[in-house]
Structures are given as C-alpha cells and as structure tokens.
Amino acid sequence: MPVSPTPAPAVLTAFRCASALVCCGAIGLLAGCASGPESHVVSAPPPAPTSRAPTSTTTTTTPNVVAPGRGYAATGSQVVSTTVVTQTPPAPQPEVVLARPTPHHNWLAGYWTWRNDRYEWVAGHWELPPYTGAQWVMPRWEPQGSAYVFTEGYWY
Q1: Could you list the residue range(s) of the whole structural domain that residue 143 is in?
Q2: 148 burial class (0-12, 13-18, 19+ CB within 10 angstroms)?
Q3: Residue 83 falls within a domain, yes or no?
Q4: Number of other CB atoms surrounding residue 125 within 10 Å
Q5: Structural domains of the chain, count
Q6: Considering the domain boundaries, does residue 119 fall inside one?
Q7: Which CA distances in Å does 117 have to 58, 80, 105, 114, 143?
C-alpha cells in the first residue's frame, strides 16, 4: 500500500483560511442580495423663480463743487454715476490694508458695485489724489423705498 505524503502544517493552515474566506464571502454576497425596501432619494424642488428680477437703472451727473479758495461753483472734472437696484447689497468684505506706498497716497476702501446685472466687489487700494488737498467721497449704497441707490465715489 503506497503511503501518501502528508502536507506541511503551513499549507494546511493556508488552505483552511482560504476556505473560510470563500465561505464568508459567499455568505456576505448572499446577505447583500437579500431583498429589502427600495430606497428612494427625495430632494427639494428647485427654488421658484423670483417674482421680480433685480432691475437697475444708471444715471450720470457731473458734480458742482466749490473751487478751493475761489468761492464759486466749478464743474468737477469727474462724472458721478448713480445706480438704482432692487436687490439688497451684500455686507462689505473684510480687507487687509497694505503698507502705504508714500505719505501722499490715500486708502480707498473696497465696496460693492453693480455690474453685468449683479453685485461685484471692488477691492480697496492706495491712490494718489488728483491734486493737493483733494478729498475722497466714498461710494455708498442708500435705501430708497424698495430699492437701493448707489453713488460712485469721487474726488473733490
């Protein structure tokens, strides 16, 4: 009677582990295939379109300013633009004021403006006044009834 060789213990252990993994995998697949309640994803409907799209109008004017030391009204060299929008302007963005380039530069803070039918942020920056003693009038949004009026900034 021929004697069959006995497998090494490591081979037997590997075979048993592989068999156990195959059985566990089969059980896992069968458990995953069990029928259960169907899942339905429910999402909110898209927001309704606004009843009134933001509208805007823009007018331009040339401010009359009193010429320094002259005592009479002079027409300013800059055109001032006024925009009326029916949408509330966003809150100002925080800014980091960089080092002043020269003692003559003035910091012009950032602001929201209305361009291309939406609000756009204009970052603050240092600027040289157009002449000695010139003062900067900040751009501003002011509520007016159900609208907001924007007036561009200008030097005087």
Answers
A1: 56-155
A2: buried
A3: yes
A4: 14
A5: 1
A6: yes
A7: 12, 19, 32, 7, 18
pLDDT in tens, 77-135: 556 667 999 999 999 999 999 999 999 999 999 999 999 999 999 999 999 999 999 99
Backbone φ and ψ of 29, nearest 5°: -65, -45
Which residues on neighbouring strands pair with residue 120, listed in sequence order?
A: 113
DSSP 108-153: E--EEEEETTEEEEE--EEE--SSTT--EEPPEEEEETTEEEEE--
- CA-to-CA distance for 96 and 126, rounded, in angstroms? 12
Asked whether 75 and 62 are in contact (CB, 8 A), the reply is: yes
Query: Which pair of tokens denotes residue 28?
Result: 């896992």
User: Is pTM, for the whole model, over 0.70?
Assistant: no
Tell me the C-alpha distance between 114 and 124, whole Å: 16
Query: In terms of Cα–Cα distance, which of 112, 52, 46 is closest to 83?
Result: 112
Residue 32 lies in a domain: no
Who contacts 32 (Cβ-Cβ below 8 Å, separation ≥6)?
none
Per the domain annotation, does 97 fall within a domain? Answer: yes
CB neighbour class for 20 (10 Å; exposed up to 12, middle 13-18, buried from 19) = exposed
Q: What is the mean pLDDT of residues 134-144?
A: 96
Tokens of 110: 């950032």
